[in-house]
Fold these 2 entries.
Entry 1:
Amino acid sequence: MAKLDIQAIRQDFPTLVQEIYGFPLAYLDNAATSQKPVQVIDAVADYYRKDNANVHRGVHQLSQRATDAYEGARAKVRDFLNAQSEKEVVFVRGATEAINLVAHSFVRPMLKPGDEVLISHMEHHANIVPWQMLCDEVGANLVVIPMTERGELDLSGFDDLLTSKTKIMAVGQVSNALGTINPVKMMTEKAHAKGIPVLIDGAQAVPHMPADVQDLDCDFYVFSGHKMFAPTGIGALYGKQAVLEEMVPWQGGGDMILSVSFEKTQYNELPYKFEAGTPNIAGAIGLGAAIDYMESIGIETLASYEHELLSYATEQVNELDGVRIIGTAQHKASVLSFLIEGVHPHDVGTIFDQQGVAIRAGHHCAQPVMQYFGIPATARASFAFYNTMEEVDALMGSIRKVQELFA
Amino acid sequence: MSGADLRDLYQQVIMDHNKKPRNFRDMADANHLAHGNNPLCGDALVVYVKLNGDVIEDVSFQGSGCAISVASASLMTEALKGKTIAEADAIYQQVHEQMTGGEVDAATLGKLEVLGGVKEFPARVKCATLSWHTMHSAVENDADSEVTTE
């Protein structure tokens, strides 16, 4: 495996090269959003400078170029996810919209009172609230896979949670609050054995590990571009073609139709049936560039380096007194959530910021996880491949600074 | 800005009130109370008030939050006990002015001046004001009320 030249990589990310309050910025809030390489920034800017036009319409040169670039990005996403066909890749605003789309267009038409939607205790609010809204509307029940003290899914009673009433299982591949990597392939297999369709929320997984929807065999896979070095406001929904074909549209409008009369509208073919209105063309192009960037380095290579970072940080924190890691699963990616004894995470965040260390303090849009551990919030450092061991050291220095101040 | 400014925010008085919050208790004979929440950071507190006519005979609080929100609530209970509603309002206005960079009257503020460091940390102003908004709401309303800041 190739050794990463981190310093060279960091030069590709303009935001990383700056000082905060006189300290070099240590950006450790990647689970919230990632920084963008010049390759992505340039792809977006170049599109607006040279090729800007609407897609799938005009006969003119610019429209053709815009369409080629937009559909080229779809091909890159297809390849990135190892989907079978570009018809299976729907551009959306992000993972949140993708989940709402599946809730509305796939589950809602078949959900009856007393039916069940199965999620897990460690889901992001984006994979809780759309299902809760739907269950409330229909009179169905939200069923939750429990969690252990280590922050792993408790699958001891899993088989019993998969019932004839379960209309979908929706689980995160990697927990944004704890970093836990869930055994989604095995879970999907078990759900499928009972005929239950599966949605996997890959928002926290795609920046850190290869995604392969055919290997996972999931019916839906969702992710956001901005967490994987692409712009905000773009993401993708993968759905098996046969499943997407059967679904009702999400929003109505232009581009999702073949013909419209006041009597009847004929919907467009996949994936356009789900892409009403002018899409985020620049965002999709930026997403394509981000995929190119990650693949130019090698996703396995990135994953392996990040694992070293997380292991080093975990060891360092474990050596400190008065610091407790929340989420100690055997398999983790990127995330180190922790508490400093006697200090509220919000104070931790402010003091870290004064040392140039950017982390997240809060409930990470996963309040049920906080409730499980009986805590209001955690401080969370989350790593990307452009982070360095020195930044981990800066993190440790900041923890000691907090402890000094609150001694 | 560097470490020195952190001391402006986390002054000794603040650290002391965070560690040993004053009037941190339930109040059985309270005739006004309000809940304050900051859903973004999870701060949650209850402010209890015992009004005798227009005099704040007793005020206390309970809950959990960051050092700034706990210390601010603690300092508030000390500052407002025995004051009339009008006096409390004047202090509330001054505290608010101080945190948003307005003109302040040092005599009215007294010890509450230590909360002034917050204005250099805009993300933290809501932590410091939560208890004050909650107090305001408790006094304004007869029954239980709910305050949310973000």
Note: Helices of chain B lie at 3-9, 12-19, 67-80, 85-99, 106-109, 125-140.
Entry 2:
Amino acid sequence: MIKKICRPFWSYDVQKTEKWLSSMAENGYFLIKINRVSRCFFFQQGEPKKLTYRIGFDKMQGESLSRGLMAEGWTKVLRAGNWFVTSNEKSPEQIKTSSVREGIIKHNRIIMYIFGGVVFYFSIMAAFYLSIFGLILFSADSKVEVVESPYWIFTYLYFGVLIAIFILGLYSVVKINRTNKKLLNEKINRDELFSKTQGKGKLNKAEEKKLKRSGQLVIKRRLGWMYAPDKLEQWLEKMEEQGYNLYRVSRAGTTFHFFVGHPRKVSYCADYQNIADESYFDIHRDAGWNSVFQSYGSLQKWSIWSREYSEGEDRLQIYSDKTNQLKHARKIGIAYTCLFLPLIIAYLFNIGLGLEMISHNKLDKLQIFSMVIMFIAILSFGSYSIRTWMYYWRLKKQVG
Amino acid sequence: MDIDKVIKKYVPMTETAFYILLSLTEPRHGYGIVKHVEDITNGRIVLGSGTVYGTLTKMQKDGIITVFADEERKRVYEVTETGRKLITAEINRLKELYQNALKYEGDFL
């Protein structure tokens, strides 16, 4: 006998779905198929059994599981698109290896950003129309007359759909955000342990102020280092050689706090990743790098890594070959060009329109002022993009 | 990616990519790869962690390697069937290279 159950939001909380699948198996229902479009699960009835389920997401999955997972007793139950479901007869406590969560986290994050964008857009539009509506409604000399018509139903329907999409979007953002935190937490315990053993007792604000006044703590600001990360690395290394030991970087990444200490040989690496991956931090930490700074955003991520070395040794780098080094620099150039180019084009277009109006003497002071602002914005955005490509060429010349 | 495309894209392999894939005779952590390559090359090659991470990410996208999480929830890398075929093809190319090197080496002395 086949049983069909629909779970429209199963992929938003995979941990819950996994538990649910296990409880279904305990009642004698075994998953055989998932329809991703209708969001339905199909079960075959059989002898009740204890099973541990694990859901994964991988674009490049083969027909069978990896040997490491098969050796652990995992079998692939099904594949639905990029999703797959594995099951194991062992209990969760006995299982050592399992499929990774990164694919799910990344996939759900993209969905979250899309819905986030929709919710944001709808909120802006709603605020805009409501304010116009309110203005008309409350202005003294206007009369609003509602005409009876059977076609009003379409207006109501339209707004009904809009509100439904808005609620769906809001729900998705909240739910995915919560699940992704939980999925990341599966690993966090170990990282916390790490930061406890690594983190040198951080000072509180009052202590910092005291040290600042006595001149033991020096603060320097560096804005826009992201467009020339090699210069930042050189600067930090020079500061260390002069006896200024980097103590912390502000959350925004623009303020650098140094202790006045002793000269050290430290190599710094500023690294950019398009999508921050949890395993990224493991490999650098294992290799002996200290994380000095990590930027907030989860789509674009900057990190600064440091590592002390002794006088006779070569300066260490996280990229040991020129292919990956250049690829990294190119990635920065492309990312910032993609960010700034659309803005530059839009502003150029606006200025073009404005210039045409100037020739017809139709511009007031405010409009000319806004044109000047746009012109400055074009120059600065353009210079940022150009600086990232200059960094790329510098590197290319250097590594050959 | 099918195997022909993979071979076309990767062969001949860079020394870095070759040693990273060659070290996956058993599943390893990212840093385990760095240590292993350092060992088998007697310290000649010390791979940077950024290089290893970048290469592994690319190889995973192309289906040459796959990952799973160990008991500490840390990533472990394992070679796939495609990856095995790729490294075999590359090793055969290198064998030919090596045999020819031996064969003609004397003429240059």
Note: Residues 324-399 of chain A form one domain.
